[in-house]
């Protein structure tokens, strides 16, 4: 969801892993999607058919709580959700219900409606949720590495978050 700069790069990586990629973005040019083998679809088609939903859009009145009880009810059972966009695009209470019911198998989040989230939050504590801080590019190491390898297209963050490893150069 969202096919701007970040969404496009995520789609490129997913295609490289052999995934069939669909995208929804009402502002994305169809020719850019076609150029990398991505099919632009409606919002309803995207949520009904995707195995993985990765969110890459700003928080606006239109995108606020765009994933909610109604939209979770239209998803394939076992979908995985990744939100690295903005807190607030997911109704967090509805996400907990979708996780508990098995509609959402797993979620990975680095943004929340209220930041930082409470450590006691049902969402943060949920066994099928991975939570990380939204600051990957804000570390000294990331900035030094970015400065040294600014022409590299893809970086892998090590588990210790101390090194970014350029893959393509």
How would you characterize the overall build of this protein?
- With 169 residues, this protein is an alpha/beta fold.
- It has helices spanning 5-16, 30-35, 43-49, 69-73, 92-101, 122-125, 140-148, and strands at 22-23, 39-40, 52-55, 79-83, 104-109, 129-131, 155-157, 164-166.
- It is 31% helix and 17% strand.
- The model is unreliable at 146-169 (pLDDT under 50).
- The strands form three sheets. A four-stranded parallel beta sheet has the order 3-4-5-6. Strands 1-2 form a two-stranded parallel sheet. It has a two-stranded antiparallel ribbon with strand order 7-8.
- A hairpin with a 6-residue loop joins strand 7 (155-157) and strand 8 (164-166).
- The protein has two domains: 5-134, Rossmann fold (3-Layer(aba) Sandwich); 136-169, no CATH class.
- It is built from seven helices and eight strands; from the N terminus they run H-E-H-E-H-E-H-E-H-E-H-E-H-E-E.
Largest sheet: 4 strands, parallel
How many runs of DSSP E, i.e. beta strands? 8
* Assigned CATH architecture of the largest domain: 3-Layer(aba) Sandwich
Mean pLDDT: 84
List the total number of helices.
Answer: 7
Q: Which homologous superfamily in CATH is the superfamily of the largest domain? A: NAD(P)-binding Rossmann-like Domain
Could you estimate the helical fraction of the residues in percent?
Answer: 25-40%
Oligomeric state of the chains in view: single chain
- Number of discrete domains: 2
- Which structural class best describes the helix and strand composition? alpha/beta
Would you identify the regions where 5 or more consecutive residues have pLDDT less than 50? 146-169
Give, in spatial order, the strands making up the sheet with the most strands: 3-4-5-6
Head-to-tail CA distance between termini: 28 Å
Order of helices and strands: HEHEHEHEHEHEHEE
Approximate shape: globular
Radius of gyration: 16 Å
What's the CATH class label of the largest domain?
Answer: Alpha Beta
Beta content: 15-25%
């Amino acid at each position: 969801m969202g096919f701007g700069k970040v969404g496009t790069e995520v789609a490129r990586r997913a295609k490289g892993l052999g995934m069939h990629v669909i995208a929804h973005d009402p502002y994305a040019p169809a020719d850019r999607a076609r150029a990398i083998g991505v099919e632009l679809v409606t919002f309803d088609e995207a949520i009904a058919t995707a195995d993985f939903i990765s969110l890459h859009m700003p928080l606006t009145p239109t995108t606020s709580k765009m994933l909610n009880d109604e939209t979770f009810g239209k998803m394939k059972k076992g979908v995985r959700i990744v939100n690295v966009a903005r807190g607030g695009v997911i109704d967090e209470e509805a996400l907990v219900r979708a996780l508990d019911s098995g509609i959402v198998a797993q979620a990975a989040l680095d943004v929340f409606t209220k930041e930082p989230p409470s450590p006691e939050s049902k969402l943060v504590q949920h066994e099928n949720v991975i939570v990380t801080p939204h600051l990957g590019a804000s570390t000294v190491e990331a900035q030094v590495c970015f400065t040294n390898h600014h022409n590299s297209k893809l970086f892998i963050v090590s588990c210790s978050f101390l090194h970014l490893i350029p893959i393509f150069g």
